[in-house]
Amino acid sequence: MAKEIGIGAALAGITFLAASGYDITLFLLVAVFAAAMWLIRSTTPMGKRFQIIGGNKQDHRSIQVSFEGIGGQEVAKRELLEALEFIVDSERSRKLGIRPIKGILLTGPPGTGKTLLAKAAANHTNSVFVASSGSEFIQMYAGVGAQRVRQLFSTARSSALQEGRNSAVIFIDEIEVLGGKRGRHSSHLEYDQTLNQLLVEMDGINPYDDVRVLVIAATNRADLLDPALTRPGRFDRIVRVDLPDRQGRLHILKIHSGEKPLEENVDLDEIARDTLGFSGAHLENLMNEAAILSMRKGKATIGQDELREAIDKVIMGEKLDRRPIDEEIARIAHHEVGHGIVGEVLRPGSVSTITVMPRGQALGYTRHSQEEDCHLYTRGYLEDRIAILLAGSVAEELAFGSKSTGSSNDFQQALEISRTLINAGLSDAGIASVDELPKQVYYETVSAILATQEQRAKTILESRLNALREISASIIESEKIEGEEFRKMLGTEGTGMKAS
After folding, report:
1. pTM: predicted TM-score of the whole model, two decimal places
2. In this structure, which topology does domain 246-316 adopt according to CATH?
């Protein structure tokens, strides 16, 4: 209120002077300058405090994250623990002549635990943890971002001294916003000034200071970073935080199920196998959704059915209230069962769930599991995938005499796999690049791949038309069928998955 009264009084005074014939040019300049300074202060977060967390486990603000509580990242944890030794055992590292690491860059997909690893590092070293985000440093006014970088390092050191600690961990999330390649922004140099200040601060880190500072940054796009950031002496170590493998997923599931009442017959290994591509955040959400489903059903425990349904929900979204018309449901059922039959023939034991319940953008869904996580794929494996993708539209054509738009996503995935085959030199075009092949050759190669696999899927389904019709009729009634029941109806129960 006082500020508004002061502004009003100033405007009234200037108006009175103007009406009295005085030259108010100087007053106007002062007013404009004051307004500009007020605007800068009101729109910049200079007064905003960084997130500061103490390292003492007895502190109510302490970090409750430890390396033991982070699953699925054993390699990343080992690299981090090794890098933290200069703080934990500084005397020994000094005797060996080791130059302490100033910065650690965590890279990897979202949800893999980069922030948790940074907090665990601070907890492990009993350091003050000061967190910020790259977007907080970029402002429209020159010099503000650089000032906030200086403030960040100053806050870390002063907070450590106040709490009687000799080390601090500075965590910068979304470092690609702050540390992007210089010269990309021609309108102004605020981005470059901010990055330059970060480089200066990291160069100024001295391992013999009263407070030893370690900078940990996280990014999903390491390719966008300026090379000056990742050179030795700044971010000395780059730690890849990947999506967890099957054993890692099982470890994460056990961690997040520790305080949840699971039924005795729950098989977390099956859930780990069916969640290929899930991050730690996805798996935590899966366990939470399973608990919500159990509560919705009025159950006191979480069973395997809730966990399986939670997988579908995390992947596809919530069930939709709208129900397709009967003709559409019949087409969807044949489409999904077509995927399932060809998938089961080519990859025995791979079908996990088939459903015609609409979820998210999907009207139906066939979920395939994989026995082991693979990093290399053969031509045969990729061709199998294409045949499975095209089987849905083939099943529709066999049952109804025509295809539908429901196969468009399948076609796009099949095209991408065909492109992979060509780029990897696994197609009939030989070793060649998609970008360098003549368009006609590329078109003919892709068409041949798709036509061959479509005919392959058609041959499989034509020999099992009765099974296609019977299983489709059953799933229309039940809306969902699990893998074991599907294999019994198909007559392939007891079969296992082939190696990739």
Report:
1. 0.72
2. Helicase, Ruva Protein; domain 3 (1.10.8)
Higher-scoring residue by pLDDT: 370, 355: 355
CATH topology of domain 51-240: Rossmann fold (3.40.50)
C-alpha to C-alpha distance for 366 and 468, rounded to whole angstroms: 14
Q: Are 157 and 211 in contact (CB under 8 A)?
A: yes
Tell me the percentage of the chain whose pLDDT exceeds 70: 80
Domain boundaries, the chain: 2-43, 51-240, 246-316, 326-490
Q: Which two tokens stand for residue 127?
A: 């350091």
At the fourth CATH level, the homologous superfamily of domain 326-490 is Peptidase M41 (1.20.58.760)
Closest CA to 289 of 253, 336, 265, 250: 253
Residues labelled catalytic: 336
**What own/partner pairs with CB < 8 Å and gap ≥ 24 does 260-266 have?**
260/287, 260/290, 260/291, 260/302, 261/300, 261/301, 261/302, 262/301, 262/302, 262/303, 263/301, 263/302, 263/303, 263/304, 265/303, 265/304, 266/302, 266/303, 266/304, 266/307
Write out pLDDT tens, residues 286-308.
999 999 999 999 999 999 989 98
